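Final report, Chapter 2: Outcomes

The project's central promise was a pipeline that accepts a single protein chain and returns its three-dimensional structure in a standardized token representation, suitable for archiving and comparison. That pipeline is now operational. To close this chapter, we reproduce one record exactly as it appears in the project archive, with the input sequence first and the structure output second.
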Amino acid sequence: MSELKTEEEQIEAFKTWWKKNGTSLVLAVSVGVAGYFGFQAWQQNQESHLAEASSLFESMSQAATDLSEEKNLKTVSFIADQLVNDFDDTGYATFAHLFQAKVDVVAEDYDAAIDTLNEAKASTDDITLKAISDLRISKVLVHQGELDKALTQLAMINLTEFDSLKLELKGDVLLAQGKTQEARASYQAARNALTQQTQNPLLDIKLQDLVES
């Protein structure tokens, strides 16, 4: 025979169990439900956060296509500041630094540009973005006439996909230093580093000028 012979006994047993365990069960279920809906809300918030950052980045990119316009300079700086301060967890902050550096260069504030590019490097673990930052820092240093520092900065770039750009800029620096033969060798190495699908007419002109000189 069952220990609980009647429906009434089963009900009474359940009541006794509920008094002992009901509160903790309700709490556990409530926490589970709240956790589920909390996660859903968090996930939706993250998606909204990322979408907003993406929209801001798109607006910044469009404004940066013509930095000869004062309003576009202001737009890029304003949005870059937003991305850096409010969306530094999205990855767009690194691009914001890169775009702000362009604005600094247009304003011929080269020290600010270098500082901004170093912030771009510090804001990411992506080695490609770090290499882009190093390449741009090197270009700014050339603008400043800091040729030896530019070469040192270029030496920090180790990604092979940047070899051609790196060697071309190195050739520019060497040429500015009056080292024609070394510049020609660097341009040729840059030309050799190009893939078959890549064209660089300006590099060809630089190389041809030195061959004919």
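Archive annotation: The CA atoms of residues 45 and 123 lie 23 Å apart.
This record, like all others produced under the grant, will remain available to the consortium after the project formally closes.
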